[in-house]
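#lab-general

N.A. 3:47 PM
ok so I finally got the sequence cleaned up, no stray characters, all 817 residues accounted for. can someone with queue access submit it? mine expired

B.Y. 3:52 PM
send it over

N.A. 3:53 PM
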Amino acid sequence: MSIMVFVYLIASLFYVYIGIATYLYNPSNKANRIFFVICIDLTLWALMLVLINAVSDARTATVFRHVATFFWSTVYCLLLHLFLIWIKKDRLLKKIWFLFLFYSPALISIYLYYFSKPVTPADIVKIPLSWAYLNPVGQGFLWDNFLTFYYLAYSLTGIVLLHIWGKNSTFRREKYQSRIIVSTYIAVLILGSVTDIILPNLEIPLLPPLSIIFIMIPITGIWYSIKKYRLMNLNPENVVLNVMKTMTEGLIIIDNNEIVQDLNRGAEIMLGYARNELKNQSIDKIFFEKTALYELDIFSSSEQLLKTSSNHELPVLLSASVLSDEWKEPYGFVLLFRDLTEIKRMRLKLQESHDILEILVQERTKELNIKNEELKDEIVSRIKMEKEIETLAFYDKLTSLPNRKLFSDYAARKILDSRRDNRPFSIMFLDLDFFKMINDTMGHEQGDMLLKQVAARISRTLRANDTISRISGDEFLILVEDTSDREMSKMAAGRLIESFSKPFILSGNEIYITASVGIAIYPIDGKDPDALIQNADIAMYKAKANGRNRYELCTPTMKKDLIDAMNLTNHLYNAIDKNELELYYQPQVDTCSGNISGFEALIRWNHPELGIISPNEFIPIAEKTGLIIPIGEWVLRTACRQNKEWQDMGMVTVPIAVNISVKQFMDVKLIDKVKEILSETGLDPHFLEIEITESLLMKEVYIINESLEQFNKLGVHITIDDFGIEYSSLNYLKQLPIGRIKIAGSFVQGIAVNHKDEAIIIAIITLAKNLGIETLAEEVETVSQMEFIKNANCDMIQGFYYYKPSPASVIEAMFQK
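B.Y. 4:20 PM
back already:
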């Protein structure tokens, strides 16, 4: 028993020494601190084994064995923690939740072997050398062998990580470190498993627990790596030693008797001596004259000549430092010198270059005096040019008024002044009405003359402290100061509108022109220049929409309408891709038989947030943005496919009408697209009906005439929608291949209300009959309307009286009934 007490005591002293020594190398190093904790943990484990083996009864031994649980349970987590720090994989360990998870096996071991089922005297067996342990069982396979799983998992993980780290490293020292630690760790893994895991599990009390002894092997390996490769510390002494050995400058250490004690590789190379040729020799060997080292200036460097082994002169920059002991008594010197041979050679070349340069400078100076005179003239020219550029950059060339950039800068300054002084101001956006007509009829030169007169008149109308800017074309921005309320802004805008009541004189002719003005007030309508200008622009367009020659103040409703239109436009770009568009179908009824004789395809937009959006809202946007082309193509393809499906189902065999916009007719590929869709869907052209509005027919007849003829040859029917609301040319009905006209709903709504509407309906039907053209009355909603239309011999009826526009599923359900 006394032998193992001695062995365990030696182990504990070894661990405590190694831990403290490592910690003192560099206490701030995280890895050093973890290694110190590991050594203290192992020390306490070894001390518990000392106490266990110092007692003679099993009950007392179990008490110390019980306490030892805290130390052997945590050591494997600590070792893996240390390895993760070394290989820089400890990022997750900085998170509390992961650190708790990482150390949970140690906590579980403490719970199992200390709280749940601790070691009992029956688990300790006395053998000649010491106490041996048996592994307590009875908690199930997993819990009985939990220590084995934990010990092997963490040890093998550490070995694998260290091996990969060393294998992937490009530094030889790290590869050596990896080999040392991995090999020693594998050794203790094998030996410790036999004595502390395998034999206790097999209930063979042959040997005492020796893991604490075997762990000395990897701890020694780690310690060796620290000393040999400086794994965990950057010791100043080690750094200085390495620097001294590798530095290219010469370094010689001399004792108090001026005898060389050591020198570095740089000194050997420069002086041509081997280390043993100078060591223990007088320093006078490298000087041409005897030099008293105490007389050298230790605070600065000086140029000296040293003697090489071949007795040649070596110019060096030499500095000497006195080595003193703790009592300030000198005990040696350190000489540090640097070869000046190359520097002196460069100095000579530099002097030669300097002399040549001096000559060149004198010659060049003469040339520069001439150039300076030229440069003065160039500078004067440049200053003049910069002023012209500044004028172009900040002022309108035609009217000499500030441009938009200068106006915005001035407005930004006024905003700062207004915040300080609480003095609101207004920004007005003025646009001339029908200015394009002036350019088109009188020429751009006359238009420019008019713009100059407009700028001058506005300037005269404004106060001296107000600001006017021309931003483009016939658009002007005006900043009116000190408009404390909306009424003052209105008065200023009214004066501007009134100033246009007098004619302008162009080439001796009186020209009248009006203007529309939009007003934005700071800070109500914006907190920055861009917002104020944008809102004034919105109000100006509202003034134009309300009849021109007037002003409008920006209102939240205007801004909301614009934002809503912009949002609707943005949503519309994605409507097809997101399958938000849907076709409704409204049956057309034969007035004689009462049967369905056709359908009109009507588009709806079913937005997921805004709900059903009327075509009256989004079709104008589609026309402006050009989206009407892909949308119209989608409508045409969907309608043809649906009609073909209904025919294949045996449901109905009638034409389907699709509206075509002016932009679609402008597309030269329209006919080819229709042919492609008919071929793709398999629909007979006779069951497709193209509807064009009367307004389109009247305005673009020369453009669409050829397309209508091609549609007619293809077999597609042509219908004129909203017939009667335009100033129609009856000659077109005779010349164009029109198969049907739809009587505008505004006339139908006048039945039984206005006899003139009734007379127009009868006239349209009679005319169409005589020309061999079918008629269809739309928006028929009441009995009186239906009866009048039937009595007037109209061919077909479309409206809520019979059917509302419905999705395809509703139409199909209707036919099934």
